[in-house]
Amino acid sequence: MKSRAIRIVLLIVVLLIANHTGAGLGALASGLPSQPSAPDGMQILVNTTTDELNADGDCSLREAIRASNLDQAVDACTAGNGADTIVLQNGVTYTLTRVGADDTAINGDLDITSAVTIVGSNAIIDANGATTLDRVIQVFGGQLVKISNVTLRNGRTTSFGGGIRNAGNLTLITVTLSSNQSTTNAGGGIANEANSLTLIGTTISNNTAFTLGGGIALLAGTLVAINLSLNNNTATNDRGGGMWVGTTATATLIHSTVSSNDAGTNGGGIYNENNLTLVGSTVHTNQAGVPGGGTSEAGGGIYNQDSLTIKHSTIRNNAADDGAGLSNNGGSLTIFNSTINNNAAISAGGIRNQSAGVATLVNSTVSSNTASAGAGGIANSATLQLSNVTIAFNTADSDANNFGDGGGLANGGTATVRNSLIGENIDASTSGTIFPDCSGGFTSDGYNLIENTTGCTIGGNTTGNVTGIDPNLAALTSNGGRTQTNAFPTGSPPHNAGNPAGCLDNNSSAILADQRDGARLTRCDQGSFEFAACLLIGDVDDDGDVDNNDLALVGGAWTNRLAYDAVLDLVVDGFIFANDLQAVASRFGLVCS
Fold first, then answer.
1. Number of Cα atoms under 13 Å in the Cβ half of residue 181
2. Is 410 helix (H, G, I), strand (E, B) or coil?
């Protein structure tokens, strides 16, 4: 009864805090960036689909934008007053027809120069760029703008941002940007020049940039995307088919999908030059360059040059000449609780780490990647740290032409491996050197399983290492959790073969759960999968039960708007909110057997 009372009190406190904000419960969803508030303005109702600027007694979309910008009546549009709300007609199409480029919304695109909310009502705004020779919308310096429930399409410009050019604080909610073009520049869908861009439940698809960022070009500023679908975009002659992150930009993708994008050069899905974080996201079926096209292009899924953090995510089915899943070229790459699988390259099917790059993998799986030459799983010529990592079922020399070694790991740099599993990999060469699991060797930090050590020199601390034994892994599949893993049955060699003092990462921090967020309650296993893990929903602190501490962790993240943590998102929707707290409360008192 005491525990139940504590739970009820906590729930009441949280609800009171939410109500006290005056902004509703949605304002407290963890992971959303804080933005400055704007005073309430006027409601401006659009009542004609004609693109006009005259005095004929109605209110067009262009006239509404002008009324809001100028804080004065335009035709029959109500005069704006501060942060206005423009309401569109339900389900209609607004086709822009006024030819010319300016910054006043008189001709061409819809220029926004004051704070405004546009309520789309499932409408379409068609820039008609073939005629107007302009994008759909431009948001100017620092303005607070929110757009919802609308499709923005067919923009065309020779400048930045085929669909939207943003220098303000822009939020898009359930917006679709499609078939927009920057014909000689960057950002086919959106170009963000400054300040902030927030995308919630938004789709950016089938956009084209001549240079950088077929879908999104982050020239500067900050992007937070939740439940974003970034697909089928193209950077025709340069980097970042889906998205390009510039040297002063920062991007965070939560519970998002980056798929089927193409780049003319590197970074089919994403090209990162500064700071990129993926949480609970999937990057799949992207392509960098034309495989075998004469110029080696890298990073089918992601190409990284600076700081890249990946958590609880999947990088799969991407293609490139080199580093099909990920290419880390001199950057800092950190991967937690994630899977890199089924990517295909000439060399380095899963991951390429090079040029003084530092790659750290913890509780992650590299599986079923292929390279027609060397390094089916990981190719390292820089610094690599592996902690409780499974590297399995990868293939080198997939075309069996006797060129290429290291089905699992090909190391020519510094690699340190602990509590990890390298097995079930293939070197498909029929003659010559055949190194299926490891080529070049690594430094052991103990308690690893390496099935076949041919071609692999293992130094360092070899305590607890197991070699020459089939780990008995199953094929990659869903075994619970957010990402797929390679499981094994009871009695298999990796079971209870990890460090008896507890599995640790490269910073000597305890790894309390496996890749699936299942608590490691006994001696840990080798690799990312724990056979006897406690997969108890609500046990977010991985101690084997659901108690007050779990409630406090989820409730605190919600009420204090802490940075999004996938472990606390129990309903897996991209937010930490009341339903996550309820998921803990409904299981309160449960204990792993």
1. 13
2. strand
The 10s digit of each residue's pLDDT in 162-194 is 999 999 999 999 999 999 999 999 999 999 999
- Residue 295 has a pLDDT of 72
User: Is the model more confident about 501 or about 432?
Assistant: 501
- Report the candidate in 112, 249, 234 with the shortest Cα–Cα distance to residue 183: 234
Give the phi and the psi of residue 405 in degrees, each rounded to 5.
Answer: -130, 170
Q: What is the dihedral of CA 293, 295, 298, 303, to 10 degrees?
A: -120
- Could you write out the DSSP letters of every residue in 128-139? -HHHH-S-SEEE
User: What does residue 515 show for φ and ψ, rounded to 5 degrees?
Assistant: -60, -30
Distance linking the first and last C-alpha atoms of the chain: 22
Selection from 253, 292, 285 nearest residue 272 by Cα: 253
Asked if 421 contacts 454 with a C-beta cutoff of 8 angstroms, the reply is: no
Q: How far apart are CA 285 and CA 84, in angstroms?
A: 41
Length of the chain: 593
φ and ψ at 526, to 5 degrees? -80, 140
| C-alpha–C-alpha distance, residues 487 and 442, integer Å | 24
Q: Which distant-in-sequence residues (6+ apart) come within 8 Å of 526 by Cβ?
A: 388, 419, 420, 421, 447, 448, 449, 466, 471, 493, 494, 497, 498
Number of H helices and E strands in the chain, helices first, is 5, 51
H/E element, 416 = strand 414-418
Q: What is the pTM of this model?
A: 0.94
pLDDT of residue 194: 96
DSSP 432: S
Q: What is d(CA 429, CA 308) in angstroms, rounded to the nearest whole number?
A: 34
Please state the rounded mean pLDDT for residues 421-448.
95
Selection from 98-102, 142-146, 356-360, 535-539 with the highest mean pLDDT: 356-360
